[in-house]
Amino acid sequence: xxxxxxxxxxxxxxxxxxxxxxxxxxxxxxxxxxxxxxxxxxxxxxxxxxxxxxxxxxxxxxxxxxxxxxxxxxxxxxxxxxxxxxxxxxxxxxxxxxxxxxxxxxxxxxxxxxxxxxxxxxxxxxxxxxxxxxxxxxxxxxxxxxxxxxxxxxxxxxxxxxxxxxxxxxxxxxxxxxxxxxxxxxxxxxxxx
Length: 193
Prior knowledge:
By secondary structure, the chain is mainly α.
């Protein structure tokens, strides 16, 4: 019971009005909490994405770090070369997962193939070149480098079959300027007719 008459309800209409206002506010409290929670989650996710992007180096910078392995002092020894090439392959494969751009994927697959060739892992080299051509069947540079590799590996017939496949699928591209690797491959084929 309220002893101060000023704080007492004066009539039933005033009391009902206050209670209806309180009922309306009761649902809004939960609603406000949900909005605050969702806002906090969105801000946390945005901050995480921004931090990740800041930590992820540019493609060129990451590639530079991997290619430094080839200049290590022990690369000239057979043991060092094997260790450095395995480390480079592991890092290049990681980069394949992080950098998804078309040019980036092309470069990574070419480097993986060259790295496998350095280790004289002919089957793995072939797998990387095949992956490249599956990824981008119109990539002339990839065909040229793969064709040259096949020649160096003593697989002249396979190189000629690759040439025939390229010519069959790319007749309309014959008028444009050809890549350096493609021109070298073309000369190798002409020389060994």
